[in-house]
Structures are given as C-alpha cells and as structure tokens.
Design goal:
It contains five helices and five strands; from the N terminus they run E-E-E-H-E-E-H-H-H-H. With 114 residues, the chain is α+β, with helices and mostly antiparallel strands. The protein has one domain. A three-stranded antiparallel β-sheet has the order 1-2-3. The model has no long low-confidence stretch (mean pLDDT 79). Bound molecules: zinc ion. Zinc ion is lined by residues 13-15, 17-18, 42, 44-45.
Amino acid sequence: MESYENPLCECACMCGKGKFNVSYRIPDKGRDRIEHLWEIHCSHCRGLYNIEKRGNLIGVVKKPDEMAWERESKEMGKEKSRGLLHKPKFIRIIHEIRKLLHRPKFIRIIHEIK
Ligand SMILES: [Zn+2]
C-alpha cells in the first residue's frame, strides 16, 4: 500500500492573514500510526505559535518565550490582547476545529488509532 496525504481541513490563522492546513497521511503497511500534518501558512503566526502534539491531541499553542509575542502584546495593549480570545474570528476557528472533530471521517480515524 502506498503512503498518501489527504487534506482534512483548512482554517484561518490567528491573525487572519494566512491559514492553517491539516492533512493526514496513512503510513505504509507495517506501520500502524496515522500521521496528522499541521502546517501554518502565515509568516506572522509561525513566529508566534507552535503546533504541538499532546497524547492523541494536536493543537496550536503560543510559543512560551517568544519575544515577538511580547512585542505584540505591548503594541496591542493588554486589554486588546485579552479581547482577542473573544473575537469572532478566534471563536470561528475553535468552532471549525470542533466541527472537524465530529466529522465521521475523523471519528473513524480516531477509532482506528485506538
Ligand atoms: Zn496569521
């Protein structure tokens, strides 16, 4: 069986100038783990966020010691950066990820991994 990659979802990045792409790859026979590939297609967000795997979950996390984040926080002001979490764009991203997790295709993949 050949390896292949399938796009799974695409959503706006945190700043809205680029996007996140998620695809998965079925490994060759003999290797049982399906690999998910997350890519940040935004130079701004790539500097601020990492894609991290924690157990079976993959998520976008803020780089803890990123100087760029500090600079941006100062520029935006603390009030404004707190407001980011309530922005419709951010909420939409969370919603997209939740929708993705409930897709039959994804549930099937999760089931296969277990
Ligand atoms: Zn971005």
